[in-house]
Amino acid sequence: MPSWMLLAVMAIVVQDQVPLRAAATDRSPASAMLWQGDTLEVRGERLDFLQVYDHRRERGGYVKAWQVRPYAVTAEETAELLAIVRFLREKPMAEALGIGYTALYMKAAPATAIGPEIFDALGTFADRLAARAGSGRRRTEEESAAIAAHLEVAASYGLRFDSIENASGKVVVCYDGDAFQRVLAAGGASTALQRVRAALGLTRPECVPPELSPVPKTALDTRRAEALDAVDLTGVPDYLRNRVHMRRAVVWSGLAFAHARRGDATAVAAATRSIEELAAVNKSELADSDGGLYTEAAVRVGASRWGVNGLPSSPSTLSFPVTGGGGSPGAPAPALALVTAARAPGETCVRLVSGQDPPLVERCTYGVVWPASSSVSPAGTAVALAVQPLAGWRELWLLRRSGEQWTLDVVPPGIDGPDTGYIEFAGWLPDDSAVLTAREARENGRFSRSFEILNLQTLVVDRKAESPEFLTPFYKWRDVRWRQATIAVR
Question: Average pLDDT per run of 10 along the chain, which is 490 residues long?
């Protein structure tokens, strides 16, 4: 009998779909199918099989000796176990195996030896497994079965995962982040790199439940901002530094919207901070896989960027003259006013009024109305206004006059539902025939950006391009305020 059989021995399954057989023969039927990362108690050996007991499934049996790795649960084994954990931490597709080795290390090592490094590895394995499970990539039945089994292996060690359906109907799998929280709680005992990985793992935007009401959502975003701000980026590789800046930009843009809804003056600082964090991204050092993250961060910052101009005051009034607006011949055109006023708690109404008469047009919303964004066309026959109903979604409201009638139309960033996007006013054509707009939105899982000439009569896009330089009117008639503040041109 080998010497290791005299000690308490655990074996880690190192392959997928390892049969647990009732007898030490290949002809014996399998009573269970084991997966990488499963841990078994070794109780003996026979021929080229090990006799084992599976505590998770509460059954014993035999496995081929070459399909598992036995280890005595002693402090002497910890150096080898830690070396394997370090190797597997950088190896994709081996997350369940890494979790199994991490758990065995924590079982064998003295309490004083269990520090931030092992929790960093555990969190990395769990977060990467969750990301792989919720990637949305089309898989074969075998791949889907393997991922489901790996999640079960991880859960058997006490790791918790949640399935969250986002606004577009996609289901993502999220790790609850307990190991990462322990890394941050370790303070100076952890390295800057470990704290960066922990902060990023705890603040994945896709893991924020969309059904959260505003108060708990704001509290969650505040905690996420604190975790990211606690990270020291000194000496951190540029690509990770970029990820922190992008994540901060996303979180602070959400806080800008939340504070603006409450009328909190900190909305200005939050919106400013989101723009500063986006500007801090070094685009020349973006990893290939981070291009989509940068675009999403930019779109979310763009949706809340009007917050830097101050809180939306209620009520507020924008007065402007209207040419050819009616009345007796030769009489001066009446002046109109765009008024925003509160109605129910959290609800804002936009009204176009003329003197004391009933509103010419009115529309109410529970979103954030940004009066500072309002712009009147040269002839006074149209008004553009930015309205933000969601943290990552900003619409363009267009008030238009046709004859003596005014209408208000909502132009959304896209037709794929309120996911992530914005559309913004960029200028007027001098004859009031069209408005220039910039639009960025995620549709069918992909972001697109376009610069458009929107016909004011039909609200149909006459022309559009991926860059404003391909549309002559953008050079001639673009709005100065838009050019100075837009995120669309970056």
Answer: 57 96 95 96 94 95 96 92 96 95 95 94 97 82 92 96 82 94 92 96 91 92 95 93 98 96 91 97 93 95 93 66 49 73 89 85 94 91 95 96 92 86 96 96 90 96 94 92 93
Domain final residue pick, 37, 72, 107: 72
CB 451 within 8 A of CB 469: no
What's the confidence (pLDDT) of residue 325? 44
pLDDT at 18: 96
- Contacts of range 468-472, beta carbons closer than 8 Å, 24 or more positions apart: 468/426, 468/438, 471/436
Question: CA 413, CA 16: separation in Å to the nearest integer?
Answer: 46
Task: Please state the domain count of the chain.
Answer: 2
Three-state SS at 270: helix
* Angle at which helices 291-304 and 238-262 cross, to 10°: 20
DSSP-derived letter for residue 55 is T
| Long-range interactions of 57-60: CB distance < 8 A, separation 24+ | 57/20, 57/32, 59/20, 59/31, 59/32
CA atoms within 13 A on the CB side of 116: 17
Task: Determine contact, residues 398/409, Cβ cutoff 8 Å.
Answer: yes
Whether residue 54 lies inside any domain: the answer is yes
CA 69/CA 271 separation, integer angstroms: 53
Is 194 inside a domain boundary? no
Of 113, 212, 232, the residue nearest 165 (C-alpha): 212
- The CA-based angle 480-281-471, given to 5 degrees, is 35
Helix (H, G, I), strand (E, B), or coil: what is residue 473? helix
Inter-axis angle of helices 192-202 and 178-185, nearest 10: 140
Answer left, alpha or beta for residue 427, where phi above 0 means left and psi between -120 and 50 means alpha: left
Q: How far is CA 385 from CA 264, 306, 339, 423, 441, in A?
A: 21, 11, 12, 11, 18
Q: What CATH number has the domain bearing residue 63?
A: 2.30.30.40
In a domain, 240, yes or no: no
- pLDDT given at position 329: 46
Number of Cβ within a 10 Å radius of residue 370: 22
Distance CA 487, CA 306 (A): 11
Residue 478 DSSP symbol: B
Specify which residues 68 forms β-bridges with: 13
Residue 436 DSSP symbol: E
